[in-house]
Amino acid sequence: MPNGQPSPARPATFSEVFAQREYRFILTAGVLSWVGDYLAKAAVTLLVYRETESVALSAAAFAISYLPWLIGGPLLATVAERHPHRAVMVTCDLIRMVLLLVIAVPGMPTPLILALLFTATLANPPSQAARSALMPKILTGDRLVVGLSINASVGQAAQVVGYLSGAAIAAASPALALLVTSVTYAVSATLIRLGVVARPTAMKAEHRSHLLRETGEGFRVVFGQPVLRAIAILVLSAMLFSIVPEGLAAAWAGRHADDLDQGLAQAVIMAAVPVGYILGGLIVGRLVAPARRIALMRPLAVLAPLLLVPTLLDPSPLVVALLAAGCGFAVAGLLPTANGLFVQALPDGYRARAFGVMASGMQVVQGLAVLVTGLLAERFSIPLVVGLWSSAGVLLMTAAALSWPSQAKVDAAIKTASQAEAPDPAPVPPAPRPGPDRSGGQPADNPGEGQQDARGVASQHGVLTGSEAGPGGDPAHVRPAADGR
Fold first, then answer.
1. Is residue 483 part of a domain?
2. Which of 16, 318, 369, 457 gets the highest tally of CB atoms within 10 A of its CB?
């Protein structure tokens, strides 16, 4: 196991991933930010409803957090590419902290609350893009794929915790919930500042141009390079199906009100996909060997919509939930590996922009999937709509799988990307500490490790591809983003 890297024959272990000091800080800060995001959504939605008693305005307060990704995600991610990633993440956390403190001030007019909330959510795309671009500098080889699986699973759990805690605290006091949210951002910023090494911006001065042109370069890189394009098509296509059971859960539960309480049925269906994501990310990421993960990507891509085809038979909500969980498991099983391939095939100076393209694309695709199936369900039965939608998905994913580039082309794309990167100048450590954590006999947080390992694993079959969500990330609520989030 040279350079402390896991061999192609076995996956990296959780202990190898958590041995990286910077990763521990980034994951902890990310959890706080994710919980804060969802807690804020729950709190502001309730605050607006109490102030206005308007369902439409409270829904607008919830939906407004998705607007930055839809109207300017790639552009905001390009901003993150221009500046050091640690500074971007700290600044975004501090901006959100201050704005949510202002929203918590009693008597704030509703239009001003919505405007402040929108401004606060503008910090999400650059923060998540910076985190995504930083991950392959901290975790390399298969440790990166396992780290992304952990991020995706923890992100789903953070969503549940954030909504539940936000609803519980906001029921007593929305202002208190917003104060708690501000504290999560403050602690997150502190952890990033103290625990992440300062690195220079990945975009070199000679590559700077107009912001819109730089954003366009992100699209050209993603869709102009055959390997990246194939990965993007596979990931974006998968998003067309896993979100549908969640989006139609309320109406679906109403069809079987006699079998199960409607509220409970809706909750079971909506919770099924996140549970499937958590299990799929952890089980496939940890227990399946790297080379086998890559081989499973295409079968899992076809399996995801195939599992929803039996909804044609109009099963009970519990069966729908099981099918939805299976779909989520399949998607979560392929996404970290796809993200790993994607990041490794990207030159360093394009990672944040490419993340913005993919994360925004995933938001748009998921929104369109729910919108289109919802409109069709107005005229036809939900089981028929979802069943036929998923059947078409099987054909789409089969076509995407058959057009997948050969391993030789994938290897060549990754090698080209790694050769295009210049080694980082020696980064400035955040603060002295008693001694380095070690994994496999190597310093756990060696600042130059990412560059060394990117070249060292370029010749390995399969493991060379280990790298983020999403679009998961840590997607905003994106079925990972890619966080990669």
1. no
2. 457
